[in-house]
Amino acid sequence: MSSSLENSTRRRIEMDVMKLLMSDFRAALVNDNLRELHVCLEGPQNTLYEGGLWKVHVELPEQYPYKSPSIGFDTKIYHPNIDEHSGSVCLDVINQTWSPMFTITHIFETFLPQLLDYPNASDPLNGDASALYLNNRDKYEEKVKTYVAKYANPRDVSRAFNLEHGLPDEDRFDNKFNANDVNGQVDSRTTSRRTDMDDNDDNDDDDEDVEDLSSLDEDSADSDLDMDL
Question: Which residues contact 163 (CB under 8 A, 6 or more apart)?
């Protein structure tokens, strides 16, 4: 990889990671490594996963943003397109149709919520979940809710996340989750995790590769988010 491309890739990673850390998602670097993060994902409203909270592992490849991040659920989840044991995700926009216009934040704002709401049972990573989804929808929904109650309790996931990353323990999820009503809404949004990052800017603002990456048309990217997952 050329020096100019390495610089542009590094700048793009710093920009995208900072954008995620300053967003409403609770996120933290793993071992202060910009290429590895943990992010808390709340279950989308009006879905079977509403009321749950999942810790998601993100790794950025050397070729990012030209190659998609690696995404895996550390918190167990029952879904046709998510491996129950490894947490691997089967999602076309991540695995096949990724574009440099997309960012890490797009994954958590749009791609994963859409996947949870609209499973693709014809291309499963969890065969049992896929079979239930296609053949016994009531039993499938019951099992999803059971997993949410058992593994994705927001209070427990949040506390474990904070403990792992040395963050203050917030009781914002206390008394807001009822294991007998896993479809209840978590009222408050996840607070942002603002992390100080060293400014390693080496004044390469005139680097054409950097400008190409930094000035990606976000409006164009947003117009692609409604693609068929």
Answer: 169
